[in-house]
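Note to self: the last two entries modelled the partners one at a time, which told us nothing about the interface. This time every component goes in together.
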Amino acid sequence: MIDPAWVSGLSALLFVIGLAGAFTRKNAIIVLMCIELMLNAANMQFAAAAVHHGDSTGWVYTLFAIAIAASEVAIGLAIFLAMYGQHESITLDDVNVLKN
Amino acid sequence: MSDWISIPLVGLPLISSMVLLAFTANASESARAKMGDSIRWVTLAFSLAMLAVTTAMFFGSLESNMLDWSTMTFGSFNFEYRYTWIESLGIHWSVGLDALSFPMVWLTTFLLPITIIATWNEKNPTTYFPLLLMMGGALIGVFVALDLFMFYVFWELTLIPMFFLILKWGGVDRKYAAQKFFIYTFTASVVMLLGLVTLYFLQPDSALLYSGTWTGRTFDIPTLISHAHLANTEGWFLGESMQKVLFVMLMLGFLVKLPSVPFHTWLPDAHVQAPTGGSMLLAGVMLKMGAYGMFRLPLAMFPHALEYFQLALMLFGMVSLVWGAIVCLGQTNLKKMVAYSSVSHMGVICIGIATMQPLGWAAALFMMFAHGIISPMLFAVCGAFKHHYHSMEIGAMRGMAKHSPWLATSMMFAWMASLGLPLLAGFVAELMMFLALWHFIAAEGWSVLWMVGPALVLALTAAYYLWSMQRTIFEGGDETQPPASLHGEAVPDISDSEKFAMIVMAVFTILFGVMPWIALDMMHGWTVTFFETILAPSIGGA
Amino acid sequence: MGGTSSSEIIVQSTAAEYAPLILLLPMLAFPVILFLGKVFNGNPFWKNNLKEGGLIALTVMGASLILALAVARDFIGGFSSMEELSEWVWFTSATWESTTMMTKEISFGFGVHIDHITVMLLFIAAFLCFLINTFAIGYMNTDPINDNRNHRFYAEFVLFCSGMLGMVLADSFLWLFIFWELMGLCSYLLIGFYYERPSAAYAAKKAFLTTRVGDVFLMVGLAMLWGMFGSLDYDVIFNALEDENFMAGISSSTLQWTLGLMFIGAVGKSAQFPLHVWLPDAMEGPTPVSALIHAATMVNAGLYLVARMFPFFGAEALHGDLVDLAFIIAAIGGITAVMAAAIAFVQNDLKKVLAYSTMSQLAYIFTGLGCALWLANSLDWHHDSKAHGIVIVAFGAALFHLFNHAMAKGMLFMASGAVIHEVHHAHHHLHHHDDHQHESKHPKELVMLNDYLEQTGQTVYEFFKSIDLDGSGEIDMYEFQTALKNAEIADLPPWETEPLLAAIDLDGNEKINVPELEITLGNLKMDDHDHHEEEFDAQSMENMGGLASKMPITATAMLVGSLSIMGFPLIGGFWSKEGIIANAWRVALEDPRFFFPAACVLLGAGMTGFYMSRMWLKTFAGSPKTEVAAHVAPTNTWIKTPLFLLTFVSLAGIIFAGMGFTHWAPDEGYAPFFDGKKGLMEGILYEMEHAFANHDSFFFILSYVALILGAIIGPGLALSLYGGSLDEGEQAKPWFGPILALNAAIKGRYHWDNSALAQSSLATALSNRLYFDHYYDMAMLKIVAAFSFKAAEADSGVIDGAIKSIERGSQNLSTRVRALTTGSARDYILMAAVGTLALFGLIWGVA
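The predicted structure of the combined assembly is written out below.
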């Protein structure tokens, strides 16, 4: 059995990578991928905790998160398409309609 | 007994104005142009009906069992009526008239038709006249309210028509002035609201018995005053520090409205930008809401705090009186000068209250009333200058008496009335204030110089009024100087409707100057019983 | 009065019941005349038959006069103070008395109070209002400048009369003040009657503001008086003064301050130093106004107020406490008497001389009152009958001088008005003639051309260049014709252009060059300028002279009035002036401080003699100084009648004196003419004996010193400097003979050179009115106005600035906060992350 600490460490690493990516990348698709990465880091943590505690609640949450992630991707991609239609770009820096 | 206040005096102007506004809102330009005249006549008819009601109230011909105004005491009301409004919070629609509010209500109904007539040719009549009517209804609502909640609602409601009057019919800087007027007074009212809500929640246990509410508390002003009175005879109502804090919070709201120096700077801006009708109602009635509020709430409920802050109030009054007059002398704009003169006169009210004498209070009440007749005339004159000469700069024109004898005569009369000429209404109030002030100063053992200071303001007032007259209507015969803004057109005199309004205001200024007892008798009875029932048991002497 | 209040005799008098009508009638006439004038302005019936309201005013003033005479008759018949008991309550209020823990009701009402002072002033006011109204009809309605606005004059005139009569009749200091202010308003309106003149507008403002400064102190004094006595009614206060228990609680020093502040009001209203500056300027008003308001009635209001204070000084409880105030009153009088007389020396304006004379004579009355008040306050006059007589005589002398001065000065002003009126007419007549010459001299086209150049702002050279079409440097007829056409002056045929061209063409070559045009237009301008500059001053004595033969009635009236003011023996003012001087010295012997006012009034007597004589001689004697003066015609009947009447009033001074006017202060100890105990002849003999053969050697010498100063030295100096015999062939009334002969004799023989004195710095200072006006104006401009402008700046800069900085501060804050929303998704993610971390940190920290 792998020590849960390792799994937690890995999921933290994945989360930070995802977070850093979400901060730094300009392309909306890559930012979306990074967000997926963070979600998966959380899923991994849920799964590890479920195994560790022998409680299936963790699995349920993981399933929910995957389902939400899937719908999020769908909506996200739709937004990006609409964004492309409006701004002819999916570079996030070009889209700051909320500024000030 | 029927309710002569809610519908005829408050509901009628508010509802009819909204109906008229809604009715004309979607009309086309040409339709509006056609409707202008009928709207004028309709609003005039409504306002005259209101005047008829209040005048009938004065002569006692509406109710068989109403009290005689001149013998009315503090705490008794004519035409009192109560409807439950929000039962769960103890809020009622509660109206009534006493010797404090009746003169103000009559004044409002008197000024409303006068204002409509004086500004008969104002542009956009389809919105202007309904807004004036709405203004009148809201103002009357403030004066007749006997419920704190209702009082506050109407207090804020007055801001809305005035805001639009300034914003839509104002001068060049009207946007700034309207916003400043709204935000400044609104901020002060919010402080007052906090005070009112605190008062509501802190009212003593006896009030909790008040049935039918979830909170067990009431907004009813007479009830609150009687609770406060009971508590005050044994100590400080709500405790010493809380009473002081509440007094300050309420007075802040009222002093800004009055306005007293240093909270006065919204007034000149608002007046200079406001249209004539707005200025007339603003100076005539709206400023008096401040003094009215003081008498209605803090003075009646917090006599201990009043005694504690007496000197501060005196200071506010003196500073307003002197500073307002000095600043007047330095003005170059006619309307601004008149606006500052209002600040100076409101200082008289403040001093009158601070003397803590029935004489001083009656002086303050009479000043509210007299200034309510005189200052609209001042602004009507300013408005006529603006309207006909397109200029209000003092010195931009000379010798106008030659071209516009009516305007010059009106100006002379209004100016003389405002500088306190005997046998005109303003003098009585100033005289009483001086007597009360001397009574106060002698009792305190102060130097007579404290009298000479405010008295010299009378000379200063004469100086700025006479100086401005010399530089506008006098000087120059054949080579008179019509303002450049006329571009060489013939100099007009005021229109017939303006003449009529001026004459009516002048007649009433003389009437109340020669026969002040018409209004003073009821004020006298009210102030004396106020002192005997409220102040005497609480503080044991002024 | 000391005596009457103790014996409270109320005489039933129908006249007293109708007394309020005396002031109500003119007050009601005010709106009537104004309204009718507004409606019927220009209507021939209104204008010619009703004299634009003048006859309505005259009727009303006549009714007032009759009522006033009825009141006076009843008063003299009953000879006691009367009070209209049914008071009209004006308003009621209450004070809170902390000692008794009760409210105390106070009320102010109006009623009529009639005592000897009232009757004296009432008669003066009603009589002069009536006479001056008559005069005004002759004066105002014959001057075309007043056409169609006389109704305003008469309306304001009757309102003024109502104010004056009301002030005299009022039964409380409050209503005295109210009518006092009403008079101030009318004075303002009437001085500014010719409001289009900047000088009149300025003078009106100055008069109102200067008196207002005094009124402010009066108002403070009234408040203090009310604070002490709890009322402002005469009878309440005067009864309280007799009440020893009550008076024990009164601080006499506070009372002295109170009366002193009230006296400042009197100083302003009666134009005494240092608030005297308004009176000379007030002469901007029409002459009837100067006669009535600024000589005969309103300026007496201050004296009336001081006279009303007599019971305070006479009260036993205040014995000796108010002597300082009495001295101040006398000293202010003394200073003003000399100062005003000195300024009158150098005035050339007829009305201004009279204005300063008014100021000086009022100062005499103040000195007289001050002395009477001193005597009342320091002598034991309630018990000592000799002291009693002294006090009564001192007070009576001052009041009698008020009477004499009002009559004489009203007459003098009316006479001066007649002179000015006729000089003005004569000038108008001649001037009209001038105008024709003026027009024929310059063709109107050239005048228009000049105006055209001024309007367009072109120089002559530019204009010349623009019209010189062929560039020859000279303008021929065609070019000139075209130029006039282009400038839209005239489109003239050649034969009409020719004379124009000739008018410009100086060298006669039928062409115009630049210098010719410049010279012609320059001449035109200069003539135009002269025409404006040469504005004839109909009031300047430099333009008069030798009028005695042309206006005999006016000259006689002026002579009698002047003699009365000078104190010429047996004529009006003599009796009262001698009395004032004698009393001043009597007090000076007791209180050395009074040497100052006493010396002033004695010196003033000589000065009065000089300037009044100077005025008469410059106006009526000698040869006409201008062409205009030679063409003056006699005046009309409306003007003559009052002059005629008043001449006799002044001449009858000895009869009034014999009737006991010098003792016009009733009490039970004094039995004057009216009760029949002393005959008229007896009274006259008594007065003559006192005046010319006083038993006391000091007063014997004093009366002759005053007489020599006022009736011989002063006029003698004037006779030697001014006037002279009339021109050959001019006939004068026989009574002028001795004067003119004396004048001619002295002027030639004792002529001395006063040019050095006339150019001294003192004379300059005097003609600049001792610079008071200058410094007051400077103080107003540099201090008050400058400060107010700074205050206005501070108000918008500092107070509103603070509000604006709150506005700006909140705006800046919101701008900053707003900058956080970058609109970039990544920034929001970062914020969310940081926020979440911070939340975790917080929870962790708390846990």
